[in-house]
């Protein structure tokens, strides 16, 4: 058996990327960026407030950190729900104590089904991002566009209706997308998206409906990836976050250009009693650091050169 | 086949002594993988490029981060320690991102073939197809860098039974003995060893170390960054110690999308500081080590292997 001849043909082998979503450039070659007050590093903290359904379908793949046992997986369902019931309130206290202003990426279904939770989130006076309908409504290649369009509309509109706010940011469940997702987001008035982790700064992302801003929310340093996927200790996570901050601050100073760290958090993980202290150490480090500008997603976009 | 015919059993004792230049104990090389993974690769019946349907944004975008952000961070470190990289290259990157190739050329780095794309696997290719893919890779490196490709690491470590034979043969077809003479695809030794290829060409295996490979360490074995530093030091210490008896090779294969992450790069920097801080280390490229070995050690090794096959 051999492969079809097409396997050795490369129609997209050309200058730039093998797609037209954005312009190819290297971070270090771009014009410098200055953050407010001459700060070196913008730290954007995202807290994902997620709903993982008990009857997870796993279409077309099982979402990371979703159900893992035969139905009904009360274990993982309730452990994830713990984040929204308990862990999140520990987060609130930590953010207040260290004067941190995070953004919250919220499963739209949660906002719809839990008015009390939504009121608490609105009380934080923080930016909200649409995190899809729930963690089992994935956006994926080959997805029927009518179906996906309906999910995007329902998610964005529900969050807008319930919050009475103009929601303009999107974080897809599992940061996954279909070939149509960027167009569908833009069509619904989404201005920035956090799914593509291919840069350390926001950049312009092309869609057939006009440009989006891509604001990368790094996976490799988030609590869930380090502790939940890599199975490192919470102490090791703290070390890694601090190492990342120190490196980025040094790089920013050396290259005379602002840098950004997008740090994503999950209350079901770091909201546990034995881990919350580690998160507080990270928050303390950020809050006392003279070279850090702790900013929201929109703050960072506003002060970047990237424009729609 | 039940056994790989590429090499004969050759135990790690009483081998002819390898004497590296200037009495070095360890030949040390760093092999940055500079790769292109496609957003929409074609299917291969034996292996899916991505765990999600195309476009697999999570996997694509972190690798793209390596190209947009990571390489220049790694380059700055290798510059700092006077290390010239030996690039394991997805050659399509010459077309996609020639700026990266130029930066490597400015530093006099070596380029060796890592296939065309890291999302096009050798599995199920006919012999002619694999030959074409290898030819494309050697020709592309020559066209963009002027280098005659000496080494090979099959794309995504996907092999056929004939991979090493074909690489040796196509190298000879294009550039005679000046191309196609070492492979990084074998993990059976801590010293270079002769490899049996069908053409009988003088061909060797170069230790590339999957165990020290950052992607294996971080993404497969899920090691903490600071423990990776400990592993690298231990690995080096033992090879340095043994290298007093007969020269050894240490390689750190890297991927900028792993090693250049802000929370990991410090471990790599401290490892380079530690290793290059030892006096008897020959910092070289893969090709330089291979050339030296072929010139000075290969014949003795062949004779020793021949004398030991079947007993002694």
What would you say this structure looks like, in words?
The complex is a heterodimer of chains A (308) and B (312). Chain A is 39% helix and 12% strand. Chain A is α/β, with parallel strands linked by helices and 308 residues long. The longest helix of chain A is centred in the N-terminal third of the chain and has 24 residues, at 74-97. Chain A is globular, with a radius of gyration of 20 Å. The model of chain A has no long low-confidence stretch (mean pLDDT 97). Chain B is an alpha/beta fold and 312 residues long. Chain B has one domain (21-308): Glycoside hydrolase/deacetylase (TIM Barrel), CATH 3.20.20. Helix content of chain B is 42%, strand content 12%. In chain B, the strands form 2 sheets. In chain B, strands 1, 2, 3, 8 and 9 form a 5-stranded parallel beta sheet that branches. A 4-stranded mixed beta sheet of chain B has the order 4-5-7-6, with helices on both faces. In chain B, helix 5 (163-175) links the parallel strand 4 and strand 5 (182-183). In chain B, helix 4 packs across helix 5 (163-175) and helix 7 (225-242) packs parallel to helix 9 (265-276). The mean pLDDT of chain B is 97. At the A-B interface, helix 7 of A face helix 1, helix 3 and helix 4 of B.
